[in-house]
Structure formats: C-alpha cells, structure tokens
From TrEMBL:
It catalyses: 4 hydroquinone + O2 = 4 benzosemiquinone + 2 H2O. Binds 4 Cu cations per monomer. Residues 1-33 form the signal peptide. GO terms for cellular component: apoplast. Lignin degradation and detoxification of lignin-derived products. Its EC number is 1.10.3.2. This is Laccase.
Amino acid sequence: MQAFNMSIANPLRSLLIYGILLLFANAVSLAKAKIHNHDFVIQATPVKRLCNTRSTITVNGQFPGPTLEVNNGDTLVVKVVNKAQYNVTIHWHGVRQMRTAWADGPEFITQCPIRPGGSYTYRFTIQGQEGTLWWHAHSSWLRATVYGALVIHPKEGTSYPFPKPKRETPILLGEWWDANPIDVIRQATRTGAAPNVSDAYTINGQPGDLYKCSSQDTTIVHVDSGETNLLRVINAGLNQQLFFKVANHKFTVVGADASYVKPFTTSVIMLGPGQTTDVLITANQPPARYYMAVRAYASAQGAPFDNTTTTAILEYKAAPCPAKGVKINPILPSLPAFNDTATATTFTSSFRSARKVDVPTEIDENLFFTVGLGLNNCPAGASSSSCQGPNGTRFTASMNNVSFVLPSNFSLLQAHHQGIPGVFSTDFPAVPPVKFDYTGNVSRSLWQPISATKLYKLKYGARVQIVLQGTSIFTAENHPIHLHGYDFYILAEGFGNFNPQTDTAKFNLVDPPLRNTASVPVNGWSVIRFVADNPGVWIMHCHLDVHITWGLAMAFLVQNGVTQLEALEEPPVDLPVC
C-alpha cells in the first residue's frame, strides 16, 4: 500500500513542481514585459518634394513618422495631441487589440475623431505577435503622410526562427501627391469622379533618383559584403498595390503581417496597401550600388494609375568610388509589367505558415461577401458638375450590394456599448441579396448599391468562414481586404466565381498563412477563416482608400463571451466625444 501511495505521490509532486515552474516562467515573462510611452503631436510641417514645399500633416514633424519598437508582450501607451486643422485618429494596423477595441482607431467605428486641439491616449498590449506591423491615420486621407513602422521583436530571451540578421531596416513604401491629399479626396467626393492619382511613389518618404529635384535625398541602405540583413517592407501607399525588387539580389521571405512564414525565395514581392513582408537579403554580389525599385501593380483594366518608379539604393560599403566628375548610376532591376497578374499570383500563393496550424474545421458562420465597385445614378436635381463619373454617374463601392456609410454623431462601438438606438442595424446580408455571374457581364440593374450602416453580429467564439468574391461591375481589380481586430487564415484563392463544389478541394487546412490583409485576386476570390474571440465592433474594408471612401466596407459586431476576460473593457475616460 505504501509503495502504491509513493507512485501516486511522485506524479503529483512532479505536476506541482511543473505548475510552480510554469507560474515562475510566466512571472518572469511578465516582469520582462515593458510599457513604452510615446507622444504623437499631429501638426502641419513644411515638406519639400518634387521641387515644391507643401504644408504636410505629420507626427512630431517627421515624414514618415517615428518607428516604434517593442517586444512581443509589451504595452504601448501613445498620447496623441492634435495640433492640425483636421480631425484625426490613429490606427495600429494589424494589432489584435484583445478586449481593447477602444484603442483600434478607425474614425466613427471605435471612436469619435480627435478634434483640432484635442488629445487621446491609446493603450494596448501586443499579445502573441512578432514581426512587422505599422500605424497610420484612419481619418479621411490623412494617412497619405501620417504613418510609421511598428516593429515587434521576439519576447525577451527568445529569438527569430531564422539566423539573426546583421541589421534590420524598415522600408516604407508610400505615395506622394504634389497637392494636399485632403483636397484631392474632397474634390472627388464633390464631383463623383475618381480622385487624381499620386505624383510619385516613395521609399522611406523619398521619391528617389528618377523624379525631379529628388536625387540628393534618395534613401540609401548600407550593407557589408557577405552579411544577411532583414528588410521590413510595408506598403503604406494609399491606393496602389506595388511590386518591389532589388537589382541582382534575391529575397528570402520569412514573415508577413507579424506572423512567421515558411521561408521561400523570390526575386520580387508584391504588397497591397496595408500589407507587410519581412525578407532576408544577403549581400552576395560584387560590391557596388544597386537600386531598390518600386512600381505599380495596376490590375484594373483601363483605370488611370501612377505609372512612375521610385528608387532607393542598396550600397555596399566596399563599393568603389567613381573617379572625380564621373557619375556611375546604380544598377536598375527589371520590374514586372504593371499588369503582370501572373507574377502577383505566384507570389501571394507561395505563403504558408511556418508550421502546422489549428484551422477551424467546423464552421458556425458560412459567409459569402461580394466586393467591388458600382455607379450611382445622378441624384434628382443634382448638377452635372457633381456627377462626373462615367456617363454622368457617381462612383460608389460595396460589399453584398451595401455601400457602407459611417455614422457622424456616435462611433459604432460607443452606440453598441451604450445601447444607443438608430445608429446602425445588424442586418448586413450573409450572402449577396441577388446571385449573379460575379465576374462576368453584370446586368446594369446591379451596378447601384444601397447605402446603409449595416453590421453583422457574431457570437463570441463563433468559427467564421468568409468567401470574398470580387466582381467585374464597372471594372474588376485586385482588392486588399483588411479586417480590424483579427488575423485570419487564407485557405485558398482563385480566379472566376467561387464554386463550393470544386474549390473547397483547394483549401489548405494544414499550414495556411495567417494575415490581416488579403489580396483578393482581380476577377477572383479568396477564402478566409477565423474564430470570433475578440469582442467589439471591427470594420472590414478594402485598403485602397479611394474604395473605402466610396463605401467598400462592412463591420462585425462581436458579442461578449461569458467571463470578464471574454468581454470588452470599459471605455477610457478620455475617449473623444463626437
């Protein structure tokens, strides 16, 4: 009997010791987690680009804004003071914001804007995310210049799942208007036409050698021969998917949207606005100066786009100096054609999670959302100057034939939390109201969506699948669809109309990539899955800002769970009022 008791006691004692060690490890991990305090002052700053000085909205006078560096598990406390003339909010793109939806930032979704002269402090913790995210304004078109990198290093005491790079460099791709971006979108809203395209692309805020008055400030990235460096590439552009390449060098892709991926090699990457890609680059070429170059991937047939090329320079420290008075141009890479959908598709379909993942297989909510453009007929009594879209119409966009309208007196989260009636309805359709040949020749009767503020309600813990189906209404194009408050698995993507009978066989249920922004292929579809484990109101929208302006968005209302840890936190005392 005594021996029997001893055999019981040993496992119990082992369990007890294991439990104490686990608690100790957690305590150590929590003790190492830091709180980072930052001040963001939104202000007008003179910025000179393309020979002209413009009064530009910036953070702390910097363009791009400051890079924030944290470790997985750390907390950020960012006080934003608005000294500009416009309303503003800041969105922490890709941060899960577990139970802290009040800190997510989209205007009139989770908060009212910070008025000129006002302030608001964003408080949130990074939980289980490592890699590259970014932050940007989420109010009108301010994010054209109000953006910066958010670098999340591994937890203290842990390392990357790849050899530690010698150095790390954020590469922020942007778009520059030789005008006030707010004026550009206001004019388009007034006329109903498409807004003017940008005048330049930028790398870390600089257009580079191929633009007027720009070569003296071209971004230079220094390398030593033989070393491997990490480039954290972010598409912070407003309205354009972009190809990125470095002459004579290859990339090893190791992460995207703050999730590690199975490494793969490529000579070119494609990012939609909002997306991030972490790549290793080895300096294994003869010491010289090599251009990094970026140009548009423009999938909408016949639509105008900025057809310029931005460059930065990858410069080997041992690169020979040219003789006095001799100018040697860096080597320029050959970029894909602007409409090279095959290269874009090869790249986006190469992503896999670093290891086998736990994909929800039982589905509670099986949703099918069309995403695309539309044209509204000119309203009765409106002047022709306000209907300058194709054939006297006004551009619009929708999901499931609902063009999303932002409220103006309350944020959706506030209305939900306080039970304020009349701000939104919860009848967003789970499937298109009318089935049609989505990527074919669409009847004109389907080109005009309804305008409304409709949400879709999800129970806490619901397992959700969404088919995101592009349409060919007016023109088909690649749409970067971003979901706030969540990462999701991309199971598959394809062209044409999604066919549940045959396309489900293409689902990757083993190691699909975890992303926060999915590139829905031109005239095609993507299928995503996630578990609704984060209560709040979360907008899902196209990250081409012209499309969100036109209403290509919807929002999920995720209900609280049972326990306090499954419930939305109370709003902060300094939450702005409308």
